[in-house]
């Protein structure tokens, strides 16, 4: 990246086209995967070095991605992108590059390093393995550390660079066919209270091993932050595309003015949340700034994402460049209430820790299917008393949002920050054998 | 190749029990059309060298784009450092199955390199079909998609193998979306994705399928609601390809069987104690794995640990008889040799256990799809891929489809909508009572099988003749 930055003016200054956008990414990853209480799967260093090059000529654009950042290869790819663009038909949705003025308000983070030595991470894992073995449990999971720099340079003077440091620790503790999973996502691994983490994992995994059969049906459930996050991320991906809404291809098309959630459900995307820095606060391909976007507030749909072209055509305030560049900055506002307090209030029902293999069943009504995974517990008289078998759900998300009875504390997950969510009449349609 | 051999030797001299180096270059092109517009044209090129090392009982992996001997040694040292760190907290003894030394080359047979063809020409085929679909009644959106990929590998290991492969893959797809009768429904034409050259794409019958899918997308908007309950299903090869991928392909991956995928892809109900005795399906159900299949997406010549591609039975007349096994895990369960099922997406990915080309063997009795339908009193005939989901042990599965027709008294009586079928996987395969013969056998390639952590995308070909399944739970996907 350094060499490219040094020569950037020269590359962008070549007179062949006034539409050239370079978006290099450099990502250094140390990834340790484990299973059966040992490091025996993917165990690797990876430096990802890519540059996407968009060239435009006479209302046509082509995008080439190369896996390097040397000035000479970037220049050669830029020439090829330009030639390719010339071969394509004129694009009625052509957009010139983002301007320097448009990116003026973006707040980026400059250089960061991973402060934790490589070998120390194996030591951390060895503590987890030892604790699991002691408790008669088998652990599997991964510890990923990554330092990423996203940059965008273009012929309209845009010059952006943003660093992020991210850790992701996932641990599943198994006992026979039962399991419980816990996780940490964030930018400071030292904030992880390992002792607490291990205690919670051990306690829940032991409870998970006492499985009683439970019939499928509609239940009052508390969804863990991981479960809430995954289901709502799918909902977001299918429903919150402004163009699809206008074309009648999103479930929100027929629900724009209707009440679609309980009043205190607040769903938004915030690129400047200090604990969620996975994405840069701009579209990594174009440099278009992201901003805070309210998705659902006070029970109603507020706003959805669209491309730069679509925003310009329809007079919307731009918010990045489409639905994908914000998918990890999602949040549902949480409340100051623990799982135990929520269980005490709900009295009877189920606690679902995570989901697995969620897929859309009916896009026009936002019906999703999926399985429960890594811990389903029966709540009786306000307490988690035993584990039950896993279920398949077929759930209409709008019905779920209208059936929310309680919101708990929020945690960072893979998709952003999501809370425990208590919902009545959650539709568990069939059992599985474990 | 010389450098790859040297780097494997370098690691051997530093105490590695085993090491391999893979130079892996991938070039792909994605072209998407939306109505009469090229929505996106993207090309990507990625190349580098991945180095895998086994030190005592720890694996380590590192990769580099620096092809100099210095660069390779640096990456080799990094891989060794991680292998030693893993070994220091290892919990089990690692060994790996023997493989003869191979000095060989393998390439997909192609006539035309798709990357030599002007993208506008490639788009024009899809745009012409799109124009035709848009003229069709109530069609308001069309999507065309084509993906071309070229992979080139050079492989050397401390075993002494030196292998070079070049693969070309093509994935075409076309979608018509109709709006009518207060409904929005789509219909997809998904010709077989396979290892082939541009000539395959060029000869595809876009125009006649454009007409068909446009008409069926509209018809789907007027389809009757399906009723819920148990019924008989007749499934076409494309629908079956997804069902077999999830409920036979993944459960027979040995890494899942042995618990190594617990944290991500999950485990498998098809555990070792079931091998050679478990009734996975009816006696009509035989599954063949064949990585030597002409044009198969997993026909790599050799896998990414230097094992020659093979053909074997996975399920024989309903009985589970084998797994897909990489070298380490094959050894672990006492097999003489791996069956060549270990592949990596890119140079910076560790090779992992992968589903092979896997198909349901056609029925031996002369039997057509029409005859199966004529022999069915009540049921639903399903074509194409739809919604899909299965639990992490691969038991409770639920699938939709792309189009559904009611079967009554041996005849198709009209289109249905919102059909999903839900079953326990082995009970589903046990309920199979008819498989059409080889005249109706069709292949259906997969190019987006996500697995591994970090996630990698894998490709393989499935296949089947239409088949019938008795008494399967159908729900309304509403
Ligand atoms: Zn798959």
Question: Would you write up a description of this structure?
Answer:
The complex is a heterodimer of chains A (434) and B (478). Chain A is of the alpha+beta class and 434 residues long. Chain A has two domains: 2-191, PmbA/TldD superfamily (PmbA/TldD fold), CATH 3.30.2290; 210-434, no CATH class. Chain A has helices spanning 2-6, 8-13, 71-87, 118-134, 194-208, 225-239, 242-247, 308-314, 339-346, 397-402; strands at residues 20-34, 43-57, 60-66, 138-154, 159-175, 178-186, 211-212, 217-223, 267-269, 293-297, 300-301, 330-332, 349-362, 367-380, 383-388, 391-396, 404-413, 416-431. In chain A, a hairpin with a 2-residue loop joins strand 10 and strand 11 (300-301). The radius of gyration of chain A is 24 Å and the shape is globular. The model of chain A has no long low-confidence stretch (mean pLDDT 94). With 478 residues, chain B is an alpha+beta fold. Chain B has two domains: 2-222, PmbA/TldD superfamily (PmbA/TldD fold, 2-Layer Sandwich); 225-476, no CATH class. Chain B contains ten helices and 26 strands. In chain B, the strands form four sheets. In chain B, strands 9, 10, 17, 18, 19, 20, 21, 22, 23 and 26 form a ten-stranded mixed β-sheet that branches. In chain B, strand 5 and strand 6 (162-180) form a beta hairpin. Chain B is globular. The N and C termini of chain B lie far apart (56 Å). In chain B, 60% of the residues are buried. The model of chain B has no long low-confidence stretch (mean pLDDT 97). At the A-B interface, strand 1, strand 2, strand 3, helix 4 and strand 4 of A face strand 2, strand 3, helix 2, helix 3 and strand 18 of B. Bound molecules: zinc ion. Zinc ion (ZN) binds next to loops of chain B.
């Amino acid at each position: 990246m350094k060499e490219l930055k040094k020569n950037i003016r020269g590359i962008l200054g070549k007179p062949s086209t006034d539409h050239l956008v370079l978006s290099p990414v450099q990502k250094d990853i140390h990834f340790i995967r484990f299973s059966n209480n040992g490091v025996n799967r993917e165990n690797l260093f990876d430096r990802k070095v890519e540059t996407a090059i968009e060239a435009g000529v006479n209302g046509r654009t082509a995008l080439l991605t190369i896996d390097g950042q040397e000035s000479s290869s970037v220049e050669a790819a830029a020439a090829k992108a330009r030639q390719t663009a010339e071969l394509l038909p004129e694009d009625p949705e052509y957009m010139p590059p983002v301007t320097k003025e448009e990116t003026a308000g973006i707040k980026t983070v400059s250089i960061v390093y991973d402060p934790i030595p490589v070998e120390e991470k194996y030591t951390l894992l060895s503590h987890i393995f030892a604790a699991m073995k002691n408790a008669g449990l088998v652990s599997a999971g991964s510890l990923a550390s990554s330092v990423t720099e996203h940059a965008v340079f273009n012929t309209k003077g845009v010059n952006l660079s943003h660093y992020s440091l991210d850790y992701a620790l996932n641990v599943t503790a198994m006992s026979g066919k039962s399991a419980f999973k816990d996780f940490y996502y964030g930018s400071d691994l030292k904030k992880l209270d390992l002792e607490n983490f291990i205690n919670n994992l051990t306690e829940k995994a032991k409870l998970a091993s006492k499985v009683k059969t439970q019939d499928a049906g509609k239940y009052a459930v508390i969804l863990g932050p991981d479960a809430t996050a995954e289901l709502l991320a799918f909902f977001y991906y299918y429903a919150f595309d402004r163009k699809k809404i206008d074309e009648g291809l999103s479930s929100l098309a027929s629900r724009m003015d209707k009440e679609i959630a309980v009043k205190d459900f607040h769903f938004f995307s915030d690129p400047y949340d200090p604990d969620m820095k996975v994405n840069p606060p701009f579209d990594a391909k174009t440099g278009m700034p992201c901003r805070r976007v309210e998705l659902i507030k006070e029970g109603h749909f507020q706003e959805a994402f669209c491309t730069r072209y679509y925003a310009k055509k329809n007079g919307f305030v731009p918010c990045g460049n489409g639905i994908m560049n914000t998918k990890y900055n999602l949040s549902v506002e949480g409340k100051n209430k623990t799982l135990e307090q929520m269980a005490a209030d709900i009295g009877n029902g189920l606690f679902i820790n995570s989901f697995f293999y969620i897929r859309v069943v009916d896009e026009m009504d936002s019906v999703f299917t999926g399985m429960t995974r890594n811990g389903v517990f029966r709540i009786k008289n306000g307490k988690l008393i035993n584990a039950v078998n896993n279920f398949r759900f077929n759930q209409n998300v709008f019905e779920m949002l209208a059936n929310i009875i309680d919101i708990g504390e929020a945690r960072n997950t893979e998709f952003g920050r999501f809370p425990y969510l208590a919902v009545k009449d959650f539709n568990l349609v069939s059992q599985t054998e474990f | 190749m010389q450098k790859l051999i040297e780097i494997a030797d370098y690691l051997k001299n530093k105490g590695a029990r085993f090491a391999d180096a893979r130079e892996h270059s991938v070039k792909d092109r994605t072209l998407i059309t939306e109505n009469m517009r090229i929505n996106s044209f993207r090309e990507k090129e990625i190349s580098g060298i991945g180095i895998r090392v086994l030190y005592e009982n720890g694996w380590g992996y590192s990769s580099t784009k620096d092809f100099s001997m210095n660069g390779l040694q640096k990456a080799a040292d990094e891989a060794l450092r991680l292998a030693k760190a893993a070994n220091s907290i290892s919990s089990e003894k690692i060994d790996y199955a023997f493989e003869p030394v191979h000095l060989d080359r393998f390439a997909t047979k192609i006539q035309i390199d798709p990357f030599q063809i002007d993208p506008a020409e490639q788009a024009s085929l899809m745009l012409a079909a799109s124009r035709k679909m848009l003229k069709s009644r109530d069609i308001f959106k069309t999507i065309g998609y084509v993906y071309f990929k070229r992979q080139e590998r050079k492989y050397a290991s401390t075993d002494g193998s030196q292998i070079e492969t070049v693969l070309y893959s093509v994935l075409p797809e076309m979608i018509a979306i109709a709006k009518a009768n207060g409904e929005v429904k789509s219909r997809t034409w998904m010709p077989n994705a396979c290892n082939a050259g541009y000539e395959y794409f060029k000869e595809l019958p876009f125009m006649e399928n454009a007409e068909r899918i446009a008409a069926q997308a509209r018809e789907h908007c007027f389809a009757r609601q399906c009723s819920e309950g148990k019924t008989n299903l007749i499934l076409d090869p494309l629908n079956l390809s997804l069902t077999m991928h999830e409920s036979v392909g993944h459960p027979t991956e040995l890494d899942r069987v042995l618990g190594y995928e617990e944290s991500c892809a999950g485990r498998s109900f098809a555990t070792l104690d079931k091998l050679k005795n478990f009734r996975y399906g009816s006696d009509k159900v035989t599954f063949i794995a064949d990585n030597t299949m002409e044009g198969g997406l997993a026909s790599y010549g050799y896998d990414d640990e230097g094992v020659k591609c093979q053909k074997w039975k996975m399920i024989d007349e309903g009985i589970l008889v084998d797994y897909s096994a990489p070298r380490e895990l094959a050894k672990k369960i006492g097999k003489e040799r791996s069956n060549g099922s270990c592949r990596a997406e890119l140079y910076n990915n560790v090779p992992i256990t992968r589903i092979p080309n896997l198909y349901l063997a056609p029925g031996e009795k002369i039997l057509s799809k029409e005859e199966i339908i004529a022999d069915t009193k009540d049921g639903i005939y399903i074509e194409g891929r739809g919604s899909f989901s299965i639990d992490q042990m691969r038991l409770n599965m639920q699938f939709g489809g792309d189009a559904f027709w009611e079967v009554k008294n041996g005849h198709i009586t009209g289109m249905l909508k919102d059909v999903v079928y839900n079953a326990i996987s082995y009970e589903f395969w046990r309920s199979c009572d008819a498989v059409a013969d080889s005249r109706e056998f069709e292949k259906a390639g997969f190019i987006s099988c996500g697995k591994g952590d970090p996630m990698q995308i894998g490709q393989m070909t499935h296949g089947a003749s239409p088949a019938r399944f008795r008494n399967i739970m159908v729900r309304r996907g509403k």
